[in-house]
Amino acid sequence: MPRIAYLVSSAREIELRDSSSHPTGYFAEEVLKPYERFVAAGVDVVVITPDGNTPIADPYGLELIFHYPDKDRDFYASVYRTFHHDPDDIWITLHNTTEQQLMASRRIAARLVDAGTTPAEAHEIVSRAAKIAWQQDRLLVDVMLEEGLDGGLSAQALRSAVEELESDSQALSDERRAKLGAIEGLRSPVALSDLSDEQLAEFDAVFAPGGHGPMVDLPNNPDVSRLLAILHAKDAPIASLCHGPALLLSAPERSDGQWLFEGFRLTSFTDEEEDQTRLGKLGMPWYLDAALKNAGAVFDDAPFAWASHVVVDRNLITGQNPNSTEATADAVLKALNL
Asked: pTM (2 decimals)?
């Protein structure tokens, strides 16, 4: 049975650019989904924090906007892809996804079908309205009502679709919070600082999920440096997601004086994506994307922000953002021949 060092940040605060502190932690979905995938595949998952302190979920990552059901996400993707055929022309921001009601497209389309519209017609109506909302920074329901694109639905019917989505998203967030609370390893993690080099060598891979917490306690950490050096020497998978690649900034130098991952292709949460987050708008103390480039990485991001994107270069596996969670976990399982 392969053993994964599941390296989770135990940071609870991050100091912003103006020296004020802001609550932080791990990103709930990025911890839960890979953990469940690894356990289901028969992996021995050992939850580790740098200091052995109990990690906490970042309150921001538990907000309902990050817990839309997959069916709604997939339908929304099929809608915004009608805006442009060239991916380089699609600029979907966190604002578009979370503040313009566009994620309710599937539920509005379903109500249109119930009212007698064909599925194809419903998709076309919603897509036309969504494009206007996207271009003009308006709410989807307002556009449908004001531009004659309601398909015969009442304002109440349209708004009920948005309310239903919000209710289901909150329920999903609450469910994930409960599942995280039930994981024994997250309640009583192993302290990385207590593990000997011999114990670290027993792991077959390391996986570091994201959230802003990893930017606090994973870079410039001598114990993380030990872990990376030992696993890299045995060509074990070194995997991280979103802000998790901050652990790579603890990597030691090679014998030639270069950073251990000099010239490796990798990805992480990008500066563009960071500027759209709440903390990014408040003022991050530094940017992970830029720091990895400065360290010597060959940075490889998706054609547009928030797209799922995973990069595998030799034993290094990195995922760009929360939407890359499942694909990154699957890449780790593939590297472990599972």
From this structure: 0.96
